[in-house]
Amino acid sequence: MLELRLVQGSLLKKVLESIKDLVTDANFDCSATGFSLQAMDSSHVALVALLLRSEGFEHYRCDRSISMGMNLGNMSKMLKCAGNDDIITIKADDGSDTVTFMFESPTQDKISDFEMKLMDIDSEHLGIPEAEYHAIVRMPSAEFARICKDLSGIGDTVVISVTKEGVKFSTRGDIGTANIVCRQNTTVDKPEEATIIEMNEPVSLTFALRYMNSFTKASPLSNTVTISLSSELPVVVEYKIAEMGYIRFYLAPKIEEDEDETKPQV
Amino acid sequence: MGIKGLTKLLADNAPKAMKEQKFESYFGRKIAIDASMSIYQFLIVVGRSGTEMLTNEAGEVTSHLQGMFSRTIRLLEAGIKPVYVFDGKPPELKSQELAKRYSKRVDATQDLAMALEADNKEDIEKFSKRTVKVTKQHNEDCRRLLRLMGVPVIEAPSEAEAQCAVLCKAGKVYAVASEDMDSLTFGAPKFLRHLMDPSSRKIPVMEFDVAKVLEELNLTMDQFIDLCILSGCDYCDSIRGIGGQTALKLIRQHGSIESILESINKERYQIPEKWPYQEARQLFKEPVALTDEEQLEIKWTAPDEEGLISFLVNENGFNSDRVTKAIEKIKAAKNKSSQGRLESFFKPTATTSVPLKRKESKCVLKHPKSAIKSKMFSLQDCNSSRPNVIGSLSLPIFNLGAKHFIPLSRGVCFST
Fold it and tell me: Number of Cβ pairs closer than 8 Å across A and B?
């Protein structure tokens, strides 16, 4: 028996919108800790890790750890039917092969039940070791989204480099090049507008912009985004979900090859 | 060729061991390819009509070069890093099989002559395909072409599939691509079929996972090898009346060929007089293959443009524009292969290696092979009647915890 009541139903809608284009099918894991998901995109370049802690739900009942395989496109279709102010309850009975999303309007005068078929999905869980990152950048999520969007008009890849000067996003394409530098900036009226750079070591990594752009779809979930970089580790782009948890995107870097410039022998 | 009926046997008994994958999802992967098999396919398929084949000015066949060139570029463009493995000397046990193939070819040649006389187009097509033989020259041409393209080539001392499997076991490549199911018997951890099929056929790549095969069949590797020998392999005859399904039953019951031989009805099943199953087993278990680190060193290099043009255009009459364009493609493709994969940073958690049986029934979302549709109904049937939510009370609690709790604590919710 599973029953999770989320007063801020719009949050779940936003979560789905941010991941449904990256991942088609995924297992949602539900345990005493919370409602979580870990899934890779089909090419195994990017990974999304979501956690909504049980404390964040108004009512959280999960008798034992279960996993529910869902098609995210279908789930999103159903959640789109919920109003932005609706309370969403996720329900599943033991032994059932469906999950029910119940939407209650704030005034309690409309209650909708959407039942969705579950899938059996074979997916691999990756162990993500805790790592010390060389550099951690926190900046307004809208700013980051803007940068990624702008750069993808010019090139396919972005080089993110963090130095003492700040964080630099650069790209190169057929029409030319672009460089955007963001400096540390803490003297702002609102704390969420700050750009904070913690750097242990300078770092520079290359990523495919296509994925970065996809990650920025999570911007509505949080005003700020945290980008953690280490050389030769996937970048982590994290959006905190207030009082509930986070959505993290991991992206494998592009690796320059050094060995190949020798002439072949015939 | 390969193991008789193994694909169907696996589809029926170990559906979870085979997965359909998109061709594109193999980018960045190093893949060992059985070259001889590919060349054979190219000679049959590429640019053939009746007895006519693609040739150069001197009248030498160039189908294999055309095929090898275009398919390899397709792999490179998808970011795949192929390494081609060529057959060496066939093991002695295979001589019988080879003799059979030879006589088939002789028959086909005669049939072809007759068909030509009768001008029967269908028969000409059919028999001329059967007369195809991969010669030393074909192999040599392809090796030269691949080297010019900057694609590594390995010469196996014996069977190419065996060498591929060794490469894969040593972690030098991600998977082995062949159409020959032997690769599984040689123990290649991951085995791909249809990777080299033309894109126009739109067949998804079929990925076999040997560990899952063993798990699903509930056999050890040795037992699996015995199963393959019983089903019918290239190295020795099989027992008349025993096919894959019976072989599986017998192996499950008795555990090895030796104990099967002790207990089966020798009158019903005639065991071949000279039946070198032990030697065959040995060949599968410890095949002759290069194992030295140095010999297995594989490197992808930049293409030799001039060399390619002189070889393909000047010597073999390829269209020079097309070759130049293709070289551009090879160069552009190098860029794509630089994208890293997450698995090279994060390893699957221990839990996945011992997956909890979520269902007792064997269900697949997409059935891997349409050829066995009749089976599908029964499978789907069990799919719908089984709960998909993991709530079945028969499952021990600690198992559930193991499945879902560990990945949670290790994989996802490391502290913030």
Answer: 177
Select the more confidently predicted residue: A12 or B102: A12
CB < 8 Å to B411, chain A: 38, 49, 125-128
Task: Write down the CATH number for the domain with range A135-251.
Answer: 3.70.10.10
Residues 154-173 of A with CB under 8 A from B: none
Question: Exposed/middle/buried for B254, CB within 10 Å: 0-12, 13-18, 19+?
Answer: middle
* Cβ separation B148–A92 shorter than 8 A: no
What pLDDT is attached to residue A104? Answer: 95
Cβ of B34: how many Cβ atoms within 10 Å?
27
Nearest Cα of chain B lies from the Cα of A1 at a distance, in angstroms, of: 8
Sheet holding B205-209: strands in order across?
A: B18-21, B205-209, B190-193, B175-177, B30-34, B81-86, B153-155
- CB half-sphere exposure, B345, CA atoms < 13 A: 25
Cβ proximity of A104 and A111 under 8 Å: yes
Considering only alpha carbons, which residue of chain A is nearest residue B79?
A43
Burial degree of B271 (CB within 10 A; 0-12, 13-18, 19+): middle
The minimal CB distance from A260 to the residues B19, B301, B397 is found for: B301
**ipTM for the complex shown:** 0.81
Q: Taking each helix axis from N to C terminus, what angle separates B95-118 and B121-130, rounded to the nearest 10 degrees?
A: 160
B23 contacts in A (CB within 8 Å)? none
Look at residue A59 in the predicted model and tell me its pLDDT.
Answer: 94
Closest residue by Cα to residue A159 from A235, A224, A226: A235
Strands B175-177 and B190-193: parallel
Q: Is A250 on the interface with B (CB under 8 A)?
A: yes
Q: What is the 3-state secondary structure (H, E, C) of B259-274?
A: HHHHHCCCCCCCCCCC
Fold of the CATH domain A2-117: Proliferating Cell Nuclear Antigen (3.70.10)
- Domain ranges in chain A with CATH number 3.70.10.10: 2-117, 135-251
- In angstroms, the separation between the Cα of residue B386 and the nearest Cα of chain A is 8
pLDDT at residue A203 in the model: 95
Is A43 in contact with B24 (Cβ distance < 8 A)? yes
Contact A126 B24 (CB under 8 A): no
| A29 shares contact with chain B (CB less than 8 Å) | yes
Average pLDDT, whole number, for chain B? 75
Relative to beta strand B81-86, strand B153-155 is parallel
In chain B, pLDDT over 70 holds for what percent of residues? 80
How confident is the model at residue B301, as a pLDDT? 84
Distance from CA of B266 to the nearest CA of A (A): 44
Q: How far apart (Å, rounded) are the C-alpha atoms in residues B166 and B179? A: 17
More reliable by pLDDT, A240 or B136:
A240
Cβ distance A252 to B338 less than 8 Å, yes or no, reads no
Residue A48 has phi, psi (to 5 degrees) of -115, 135
Three-point CA angle B414, A140, B413, nearest 5°: 10
Query: Residue B158 and residue B290: Cα distance in Å, rounded?
Result: 9
- Which range has the top average pLDDT, B46-55, B236-245, B345-354? B236-245
Q: H or E element: which one contains B382?
A: helix B373-385
Quick: pLDDT tens for A149-167: 999 999 989 999 999 889 9
- Write the CA distances from B321 to A64, B54, B55, B297, B309, integer angstroms: 65, 18, 18, 34, 10
Write the residue in A65, A130, A250 that is nearest to B400 by C-beta: A65
Residues in chain B closer than 8 A to A65 (CB atoms): 400-401, 403-405, 408
Give the whole-angstrom CA distance, residue B333 versus residue B117: 48
Contact A45 B339 (CB under 8 A): yes
Q: B338 and A255 in contact by Cβ < 8 A? A: yes
